[in-house]
Write a structure and sequence with these properties.
The chain is an alpha/beta fold. The chain has 9 helices and 11 strands. It folds into 2 domains: 194 residues, Rossmann fold, CATH 3.40.50; 87 residues, no CATH class. Helix content is 32%, strand content 20%.
Length: 304
Amino acid sequence: MSSANHPVVIIFSQHGLCDLYSEMLSLAHKVAPSNSHIVAPNLGIVKTYFNIEPLINKVEEDAVQAFGQYPNTPIRIIATSLGGVIWVEVLSRNREWWSKIESLVLLGSPIGGSDLARMIDPFGWGIGMAKYLGENRRPLAEKITAVVPTLVVTGNTTGGSDGTVTIESTKLKHAHFICINGVSHPALRSAPAVAKTIQAFWEQPRKPLPATEVTLVSELVEHFRTVQGITDANSADVQYAKIIHSFADGTTIRTWINRFGIYHVFIVDLDGKYQYSGFVGWVHITGLETAINKAIARIRYDFT
C-alpha cells in the first residue's frame, strides 16, 4: 500500500509462532489508511520454534530501516501472539522510539507468560520457544503502555482463553482492552471483528489509560503477580476452586490443585465476579502458600 508519495503512517504487522507473515500482511492491508507504508517482517515458521533473540534482532533491523527511510512518519504496530512479545522486547530496548508511536495493538499476546509454555517447560530449562513465552514481561510492557496508546485484543472460546492463550495473560495496565467472544487464537489474524476493532481504535486519537484506583482486589492482584514462578491461569477453572478466605467486603481468595498437582489461586470480588487467576509448579507451591498467608494478614489489615 506504499506509494511514491510520502506515507501518512508506517504500519508494522508482526506474525507469531508458526504463523505465515502473509496473514499479518493481509490484516495490515485491511486496516491501513490510504498511502501507508506496511512492513510485515517474515521471521520464518521454523525459526519461531527456537530462539527469540534472532527474531528480536530481525524486527529491530527492519524497524531501523523503515525509520531511516521515513524519519518523521508516525508509527503504528500490530502484533499477534509471539509477535507481541517480540515487539515488547524491541521497544524496551529502544525507548527513544516511543514518542514516534501512535499506537501499539497486541492480539492475543501472552505478555504475562503463556500457561502452555510453562507446562511444556515448567522449570525454564530452555525447551525451544517455550522458555521465552513462559516469561512474565508485564513489568516491561507496562512501562511502554504508560506512554504509548495501546490496545489489547483477545479472543474467548473457552470462558478463560482463546483456546491457546489465557485472557488473563494478555491484560496490561494503561491499555485499552477488548475481548471478542467466539474468536479463537488463529482467528485473531483474520476475523472481521478484529479488523473493525483496530480501525475503531485508530479513528480517534487515544491516550494511555490512567492508573486504576487502588482497591482490595487490585492490591491482591499485584501481590500475587509478584510470587516467584507464578503464571497467569485460565479463569474458567475458578469453578473448581474452594474458598480459603473471605475478606470483610465479600472478596474471596480461592485455591485449586489440578490432577497434575499444579497449585492455582483465584480472586473473586464481592459481587462474585472473577478478577484474577494464577498457578505455580511444584517447586513454587511453598512460596505461593506463604504469599496467600501474607495477603490474608497484611492486606486484610490495610483495608479494614
